């Protein structure tokens, strides 16, 4: 099967910020559970086998599986959970050809789509279902590209640096420390990073921090100042200016929109 004629339907989408005691009770799924872990660790039991899922991992649980899960209380679990139904154009069920657990990392392209889906799902404007399905297809395409079409090839030295960035978004990150992790000189690291990622290391760090801040603000649980602090910014003015430069709107706009949705 070439998977070019997919008709996905979203049963549930959650931008999950789990409490330490979060669990999923054991039950048989009548949907595909496609959960991407942005931060933290969870333990999923699928058909009697336990699977540890870490930051940057995707778990794809087939329809009809016995599933339960718990979070590691030491690190808050942040994840994007999609419960979906997948059909071909004749209405027949389609199974995804992905491993149960895969490491995806935290690519900017994927996080941007998830953030947009979160916003559409929260607002629920007229036609949001159609837009949400389109975004789901983009997410599925990304996973097919990584896991099925095998379109990978990031330099392992840069991947190590990227992983370090994603783990330490809560603090200031120096280019020198990334070069040490990659095992190269600082000037060469800058050249290699831009060649591999298509952007400078500093620009990548800022964009990932702002993506993380956007995700935090979309939860509706934190102020702009708290989101800035959680992403390693001490200067709220600089944070707001950088946020608007990258996203095209100020961080306060997200809070206004999420509050308007919650009171609608």
Summarize the structure.
The protein has helices at 108-123, 128-148, 156-167, 175-182, 186-197, 201-218, 224-230, 236-247, 251-262, and strands at 7-17, 23-28, 32-39, 42-46, 49-53, 57-61, 66-71, 78-87, 101-103. It is α+β, with helices and mostly antiparallel strands and 264 residues long. Helix 6 (201-218) packs parallel to helix 9.
Q: What is the correct CATH architecture of the largest domain?
A: Sandwich
DSSP strand tally = 9
Calculate the terminal CA-CA distance, rounded to whole Å: 44 Å
DSSP strand (E) fraction?
15-25%
The CATH superfamily name of the largest domain is Regulatory protein AraC
Rg from Cα = 19 Å
Largest sheet strand order: 1-8-3-6-9
Number of structural units classed as domains: 2
Which fold does the CATH topology of the largest domain refer to?
Jelly Rolls
Main sheet overview: 5 strands, antiparallel
| CATH class annotation of the largest domain | Mainly Beta
Number of H- or I-type helical stretches: 9
Mean pLDDT: 90
State the helicity in percent bands: 40-55%
In one word, what is the shape?
Answer: globular
Low-confidence stretches: none
Overall SS class:
alpha+beta
Name the helix and strand elements from N-terminus to C-terminus, one letter apiece. EEEEEEEEEHHHHHHHHH
């Amino acid at each position: 099967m070439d998977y070019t004629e997919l008709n996905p339907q979203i049963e549930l989408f959650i931008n999950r910020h789990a409490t330490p005691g979060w669990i999923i009770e054991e039950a048989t799924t009548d949907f595909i559970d496609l959960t991407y872990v942005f931060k933290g660790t969870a333990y999923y039991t699928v058909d009697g086998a336990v699977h540890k899922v870490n930051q940057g991992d995707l778990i794809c649980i087939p329809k009809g599986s016995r599933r339960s899960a718990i979070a590691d209380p030491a690190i808050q679990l942040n994840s994007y959970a999609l419960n979906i139904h997948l059909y071909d154009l004749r209405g027949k069920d389609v199974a995804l050809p992905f491993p149960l657990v895969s490491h995806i990392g935290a690519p900017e392209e994927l996080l941007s789509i998830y953030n947009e889906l979160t916003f559409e799902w929260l607002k629920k404007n007229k036609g949001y279902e159609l837009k949400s399905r389109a975004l789901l297809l983009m997410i599925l395409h990304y996973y097919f590209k990584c896991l099925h079409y095998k379109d990978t090839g990031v330099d392992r030295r840069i991947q190590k640096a990227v992983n370090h960035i994603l783990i330490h978004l809560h603090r200031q990150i120096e280019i020198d420390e990334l070069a040490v992790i990659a095992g190269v000189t600082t000037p060469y690291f800058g050249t290699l990073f831009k060649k591999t990622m298509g952007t400078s290391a500093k620009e990548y760090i800022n964009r990932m921090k702002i993506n993380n801040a956007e995700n935090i603000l979309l939860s509706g649980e934190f102020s702009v100042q708290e989101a800035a602090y959680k992403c390693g910014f001490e200067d709220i003015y600089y944070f707001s200016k950088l946020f608007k430069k990258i996203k095209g709107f100020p961080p306060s706009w997200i809070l206004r929109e999420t509050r308007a949705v919650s009171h609608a």
